[in-house]
Structures are given as structure tokens and as C-alpha cells.
């Protein structure tokens, strides 16, 4: 696991943690404000109903203009600091009678303007500006109570603002906390990744020397005593181990290049052509028909070393697994601005019933028996796994298909973002 992937995992963790934090914070803030608003409306309506009940029992039915009210003690305590007024609509259609004793100078016209159309509201309970109203039918008509709730609305607005401020502070604090925690969480992964890279690099280089000694000793034995079944078996094992060492070096090199990747506007046509032409002699020595179809002047924001490695892996794989006296073809074409398509194909008659889905598994081999003498074409799947990783780095996904005896590896690539 390289540092880029570790950083990506850290960002994903932070993003997920913040999304959930935002949802939880918004949920709590919403519950607080909705709960407060609901409780506030309930209190307002109960107060209005108390006003209506007290007035109807005390004076409205007998004489709405009477100054004597029959408030019960509970209602009286709650209404001391409230501005309100009442309007009585008689059933005989007479003039509405307005009581403005507790309005601090409100005129009759102002009161009637506030409740214009209120008695036609079927729900009864409603709001006009900072005033809330409710009405009930009593003996002789309809009694409507209307009260000023400016203080309550101000409290609601202050609570909402305070909730938003606390939520923002909590989210900022959570963000920095998550960053610190995620850094502690990924530190062991980063250290393990570093040690893994060191182990692969050291092991691959340390294995070179004993393999070279074994090869030399075996060749000397063949010179002195002649080639035998045992020396041939030993040389096959040396070849296999040498191939494994080369693949380990390839992994270490790809990880090092990932760490030091430098992007630039790249003439990818030239890079692919130069890399492909370096394999011409290899294809010729194995009697393969080797052809290139590379469009000119195709540019991509990319890292040249990763493109070279991708081409090398695919072309080497195509030559190695191509049918005897078969053909290998490398093509490159533009697919719009900042997008290209690289295709490497070769003759492969055995591919009709092949399980292509496992080709990109690291250490997967076509020969499932893993027999020591399965032949020189037995690979380890490391190369194609690296090709898959490089292609995904460029925003694509390598695909493999077989048709009419030709197997093709297709790599859609897009420009990298400058870092």
C-alpha cells in the first residue's frame, strides 16, 4: 500500500466522518428548533384559549364592554406582561365589539386590520405579523383573542442563530479532531507500507547474488560433466526465481515512481513509440509479426515513467504469450481532449475459454498447478496487476477481450491533475 493510497483512505475517512457529523449536527439542531417552535405554538394557543375562556365566563356573554374580568389566578399570572385584545362578533350581524384594554394604545382600526379575515380561517389558529389569534364560538356569537408575541419570536430567532453558531463551531472542531485521529490511525499503515517497500527492494537485490552463483555453478557443471536432467531442472528453477526477482524489482520501482511522480504535458505518441520500438528486436528474435499504429502528436498530462512502464508491461506480456509465429500490435489514438486509448493485442488461440477476470490478480498464473516445469511462459500476474494500477491512476480501467483468435488489452487514459 503506497502513500498515495494511504492519503486517499485518510481523505475518504475524513469525508465520511464529516458527512455523518454534519447530518447528526443538523438533525440535533433541527430537533431543537422544531421542538421549541412546536412547544411555543402550543403555549401560545393555550394562552389564547385561556383568554377566550376567561372572557366568555366573565363578561363577554353579558356585556362585552364591561371592565370586570373573571380571569382565574393561573391565567392572570400568565397574562400580566402580554399585549392582547379581543373581538366579539355577535350572531345578529351587529358591529364587532373590540376590547383594547391590554394593547397599550392600539386603535380599533389597527386591531381590525390585524385580524381581517381571521374568522374565515377554518383552522381558527393563525398569525398576522407578530400577533397570533384564535377564536371560538360562544353564546351569542364568536369571540376572537389576539396577542402580541414579539418577545417569543425574538427568542426563537436568537435560539436559531445560537444553534447555527454552535453547529458551525462543533463541525469545525470535529473536522480538526477527525484529522488528528485519522493521522494517528494511518500512521501504522504508512510505517507498514514503508517497511514493505524496503523489504521488497532489499529482498529482490539480496536474491540476485545467490541466483547468479547457482546459475554459474550449474553452467560450470554442465561444461565439466555435460547437461543432465538435474542441471536442466536447476536452470529452470533459476529462471523462475530470476523472473520472480525481476517482478519484485518492478513492484518496488513502480512504488518509488508513484512517490516521486512528476506530471507534465507529455507527447505520449513519442513515449509509446520509443517504448514499443525497444521491443522490436525481442519480437523479431521470437519470430513474431510486430506492428505499430500510433497516432502522431497525441498529448496527455502524465508522468512519462508510468506510461513507459505501462507500455513495457503490456508489450512484454503480449510477446511472451503470443502464439508461435503470431502477431503483436500496439496502437494509440486520441479520444478527445486529455483522453487517449492504448491497445496492445496479440494472437492467442487458447483464449477462447480463458477466465479473463483473474488476469489482473497479483501472483495469478495461467498454470493453476504452479508446477515447476510448466514452461517459460508461466508468469506471476504481477505485470498485469501493475498495468491495472497505472491505468486506474489515469482514471481508467484496463479491459481484456478476445475475438477471432486475438486477445486485446485496452487502456483508456485521461490527463492527471497537476500536483
**Beta-strand residue fraction:** 15-25%
Number of strands: 12
Summed up, the helix count is 9
Integer-rounded radius of gyration: 42 Å
Descriptive terms for the model:
five-stranded mixed beta sheet, five-stranded antiparallel beta sheet, alpha+beta
3D architecture notes:
The protein contains nine helices and twelve strands. It has 419 residues and is an alpha+beta fold. A hairpin with a 6-residue loop joins β1 and β2. The protein is elongated and about 130 Å long. The two termini are 20 Å apart. About 8% of the residues have low confidence.
Structure in a nutshell:
The protein is an alpha+beta fold. The protein contains 9 helices and 12 strands. The strands form 3 sheets. Strands 2-1-5-4-3 form a 5-stranded antiparallel β-sheet. A 5-stranded mixed β-sheet has the order 7-9-10-12-11. The protein has a two-stranded antiparallel sheet with strand order 6-8.
Strand and helix map with partners:
Layout: H1 3-60, H2 73-79, E1 84-90, E2 97-102, H3 108-114, E3 126-128, E4 131-138, E5 141-148, H4 150-225, H5 229-259, E6 264-267, H6 268-277, H7 280-285, E7 289-294, E8 299-302, H8 304-321, E9 327-334, E10 339-347, H9 382-393, E11 399-403, E12 406-414
Helix pairs in contact: 1-4, 4-5, 6-8, 8-9
Amino acid at each position: 500500500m503506497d502513500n498515495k493510497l494511504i492519503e486517499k483512505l485518510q481523505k475518504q475517512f475524513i469525508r465520511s466522518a464529516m458527512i455523518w457529523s454534519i447530518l447528526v449536527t443538523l438533525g440535533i439542531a433541527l430537533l431543537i428548533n422544531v421542538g421549541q417552535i412546536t412547544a411555543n405554538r402550543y403555549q401560545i394557543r393555550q394562552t389564547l384559549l385561556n383568554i377566550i375562556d376567561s372572557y366568555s365566563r366573565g363578561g363577554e356573554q353579558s356585556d362585552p364592554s364591561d371592565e370586570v374580568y373573571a380571569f382565574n389566578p393561573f391565567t392572570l399570572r400568565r397574562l400580566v406582561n402580554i399585549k392582547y385584545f379581543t373581538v366579539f362578533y355577535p350572531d345578529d350581524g351587529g358591529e364587532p365589539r373590540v376590547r383594547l384594554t391590554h394593547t397599550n394604545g392600539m386603535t380599533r382600526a389597527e386591531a381590525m386590520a390585524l385580524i381581517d379575515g381571521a374568522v374565515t380561517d377554518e383552522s381558527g389558529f393563525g398569525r398576522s405579523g407578530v400577533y397570533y389569534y384564535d377564536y371560538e364560538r360562544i353564546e351569542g356569537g364568536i369571540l376572537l383573542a389576539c396577542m402580541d408575541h414579539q418577545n417569543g419570536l425574538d427568542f426563537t430567532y436568537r435560539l436559531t442563530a445560537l444553534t447555527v453558531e454552535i453547529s458551525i463551531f462543533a463541525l469545525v472542531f470535529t473536522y480538526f479532531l477527525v484529522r488528528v485521529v485519522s493521522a494517528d490511525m494511518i500512521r501504522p499503515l504508512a510505517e507498514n507500507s514503508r517497511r514493505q517497500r524496503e523489504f521488497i527492494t532489499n529482498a529482490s537485490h539480496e536474491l540476485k547474488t545467490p541466483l547468479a552463483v547457482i546459475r554459474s555453478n550449474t553452467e560450470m557443471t554442465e561444461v565439466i560433466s555435460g547437461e543432465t536432467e538435474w542441471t536442466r531442472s536447476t536452470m529452470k528453477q533459476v529462471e523462475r526465481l530470476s523472473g520472480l526477482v525481476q517482478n519484485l524489482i518492478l513492484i518496488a520501482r513502480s512504488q518509488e515512481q508513484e512517490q516521486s511522480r512528476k506530471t507534465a504535458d507529455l507527447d505520449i505518441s513519442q513515449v509509446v513509440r520509443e517504448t514499443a520500438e525497444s521491443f522490436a528486436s525481442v519480437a523479431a528474435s521470437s519470430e513474431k509479426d510486430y506492428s505499430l499504429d500510433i497516432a502522431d502528436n497525441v498529448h496527455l498530462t502524465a508522468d512519462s515513467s508510468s506510461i513507459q512502464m505501462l507500455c513495457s508491461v503490456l508489450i512484454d506480456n503480449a510477446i511472451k504469450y503470443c502464439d508461435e509465429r503470431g502477431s503483436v500490435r500496439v496502437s494509440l489514438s486520441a479520444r478527445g481532449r486529455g483522453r487517449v486509448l492504448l491497445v496492445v493485442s496479440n494472437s492467442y488461440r487458447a483464449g477462447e475459454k480463458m477466465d479473463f477476470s483473474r488476469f489482473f490478480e497479483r501472483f495469478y498464473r495461467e498454470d493453476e498447478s504452479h508446477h515447476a516445469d510448466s514452461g517459460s511462459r508461466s508468469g506471476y500476474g504481477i505485470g498485469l496487476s501493475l498495468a491495472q494500477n497505472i491505468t486506474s491512476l489515469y482514471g481508467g480501467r484496463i479491459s481484456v477481450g478476445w475475438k477471432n483468435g486475438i486477445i486485446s488489452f485496452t487502456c483508456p487514459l485521461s490527463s492527471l491533475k497537476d500536483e
